């Protein structure tokens, strides 16, 4: 009887030891998962802003970029917008100029588009995709328009307007520069200085 009790006791102790090890392993996995979830949430939060006062795929692990604004303040780019800026050439960064500040300079719209305006252009991001819209084309895109694309004081501009969000970086062919949007395109002839805005296949007034 004594031997049987000892063997049973030893078996119970061994089982408890295994259970303890398994429980400890599960605990470690949960801690790791929680840590990963926390990191993911932080990254998503950064991606939602675009900048504190407010690219292509594969920008989730981009590093923040801190820039000096014209008024002497600091503007921090995050997520796809930071990645897009970092991937720009030195000439492109020079052409963009300093980031703008103020209520309409950066943020995120109800349509999920984040943006940061610069002196020479704007970087926008929707999901992981970020694009640069430049100069005259950016200015025409920002004009407040009604749903048909006609300039209107009661309309909306930028990604909230009838053109929607950018869907490409600017392309250039000869004297013609072009940017495409969800519902149209804008072209700029560098020789004639003419800007043409097309909304849903129809050419509309520029301003």
TrEMBL record:
Domain of life of the native organism: Bacteria
PROSITE patterns reported for this sequence: PROKAR_LIPOPROTEIN
Record bears the keyword Signal: yes
Signal sequence residues: 1-23
Pfam families reported in the protein's UniProt record: LGFP
Keywords per UniProt: Signal
Ranges of biased composition (kind: Low complexity): 36-60
InterPro entries hit by this protein: LGFP
Basic and acidic residues: bias regions: 143-153, 174-185
Annotated spans, Disordered: 26-73, 86-113, 143-192
Protein name: LGFP repeat-containing protein
